[in-house]
Amino acid sequence: MRGKNIIIGICGGIAAYKTPQLVRLLKKRGANVKVALTEGGARFVSELALATVSEEPVYGRIFPPLGTEKMDFTRHISLGEWADALVIAPATANTLARLSAGLCDDMLSALFITLRPDKPVLIFPAMDGQMFLSPSVQRNIATLAAQGCMVINPESGELASGQCGVGRMPEPEAILAILEECLHSAKASSPLFGKTVVVTAGPTREKIDGVRFISNYSSGKMGFAIARAAAKRGAIVKLIAGPVHLSSPPDVERLDVESTAEMYAAAEGFFDSCDLFIGAAAVSDYRPASPCKGKMKKDDEQIELTLIKNPDILAAFGLQKSPCQLAIGFALETQNGLDNARKKLAEKNLDLIAFNFFDHKTSGFNVDTNILTLIESDGKTTELPLLTKDGAAEKLLDAIEQLCLKNAIKP
Ligand code: PMT
C-alpha cells in the first residue's frame, strides 16, 4: 500500500464508526488517505476523528465555504485525479441510488464521477437485510457492477435493528485485505472478484446404523478444483465438503459436513448472502428412514431398508434466489444425459448446468479428468474436451464470469 492514494467514502450507516480504524490501518501500511464524508456519515463518525487519523482535511460538501484562505473550487476533480482507488464503506441504500443515477451533489458522489476510469472502486454496502435485498437496492448494485465497480456483499450477523441477517460491513482488516488484493493482482479484473461463491463438493453419507452408511464414489476433486479456481480469481469462497480425503485449497473457507441434512444446513446459511452457488457435490438422494443407534445384528437372512427422500439443496437455492444471484449445478448421468441435464436445469431454476457422464476412466467420479458439457438457461450449449478437473474448473468459471457480466446488465 506504500505510496498509494486511497479515498475512503463514508456514508450514514452505523458501521461508519469503524472507519477511523480502516483509515489507521491504511496509514500504517504507508498509504495516503483522504476521506469523503457524506452528510449522513458525519452523523455517525466525527470529522475530527477522521481528520486526525488521516492527517488530512475531511471532504464533505462540494462547494468550499466562501472566504476561506485557500479556496479550491475544483477539488472534486483533483481528488478524482489523485486517487489510486476509491473505497466506499459503509455504502448506504441512498448513496448507492445516487451513484447509480449519476447524481453529484456532494464531494463523494462528485469525485466518484471524476475518478479515472482505470481506478478501482470498491463498494461495501451495509444496511438492514431487507433493505439490502430490496429490488431497488439490488438494481442499483447491478448498475454499479455493470459500470465496473466491485460491489462486495455485506456479511451476515447481528444487525443494528437487533435482527440477524445479511447487511453487516466487513471488519476494517477484511476491507484492507480486499483492497490490497485488488491493487496488487490481476484478479481484480475478474467479475468474480469480491463475490461470495459457495461450492458444495464430495459425497454425503447417510447412516444405516452406528457403523454403516449409504454414499457414492465422489472424491470431491471437481468441487475442490472449482473452489481453488474461484479463489484464484479473487472470489470469497465457502467450500462445503462432504467426507473426502483432500486438503483445503488456499484462501478458501472450508466447512466439513457428513450427511445431506448437515450440508443443507451449512449451505442454507449462505442462501441470502452469496452471489453464486455451485453444486458440485454428489448429494445422496435418499436416507434410511430410521437408522439404528448401534451396530445392527446380522441374525436375519434378509432385511428391508426404508429410504426417504432428502431435500434438494441446489433446488432450494435455485427456486428462492434473487435476480442478482446465480445457481450453477452439475448433472452426472449414465443415460439420456443431455435431456436429463436440461430437465434438472429447468426444474431447479439454474443458470447453468455442467453435464458429465460416468465412465470410470476419464470423467465423472473419482478420476482426475472430466468431460463437461455446459448448458445455459437460454439453451446455449458448449462441449468441452477432455481436461484435468482443474482445467475443466477454469473453463466452467470462464463461462460463469460471462453470466455474471450478463446478469449485471440485466434490466
Ligand atoms: O467428486 P468427484 O469425484 O470429483 O466427481 C465429480 C462429480 C461427478 C461428483 C461432479 O462432477 C458431479 O457431477 N456432481 C453432481 C453429481 C450428481 O449426481 O448430481 P445430481 O444429478 O444428483 O444432482 C444435480 C444437482 O443437484 C447437482 O449439482 C447436485 O449437487 C445437486 N443436488 C442433488 C441432490 C440434492 N439432494 N441436493 C443437491 O444439491
Task: Please outline the helices and strands.
Elements: E1 5-10, H1 19-28, E2 32-37, H2 41-44, H3 47-54, E3 58-59, H4 75-82, E4 85-91, H5 93-101, H6 107-114, E5 121-125, H7 129-133, H8 135-146, E6 150-151, E7 155-158, E8 164-168, H9 172-184, E9 196-201, E10 206-207, E11 213-214, H10 221-232, E12 236-241, E13 252-256, H11 260-268, E14 276-279, E15 286-288, E16 307-309, H12 313-320, E17 326-333, H13 337-347, E18 352-357, E19 369-370, E20 373-376, E21 381-383, E22 387-388, H14 389-408
Helix pairs in contact: 1-3, 1-9, 4-6, 5-8, 10-14
Structural notes for this entry:
- The protein is an alpha/beta fold and 411 residues long.
- The chain is 33% helix and 23% strand.
- The protein contains 14 helices and 22 strands.
- The protein has an eight-stranded mixed beta sheet with strand order 13-12-9-14-17-18-20-21, with helices on both faces. It has a six-stranded parallel beta sheet with strand order 3-2-1-4-5-6, sandwiched between helices. Strands 7-8 form a two-stranded antiparallel ribbon.
- Helix 13 links the parallel strand 17 and strand 18.
- The protein is elongated.
- The two termini are 37 Å apart.
- The mean pLDDT is 92.
- Ligand PMT binds next to helix 10, helix 12 and strand 17.
Give a list of the ligands: ligand PMT
Termini separation comes to 37 Å
Major beta sheet summary: 8 strands, mixed
CATH class of the largest domain equals Alpha Beta
* Strand residue percentage: 15-25%
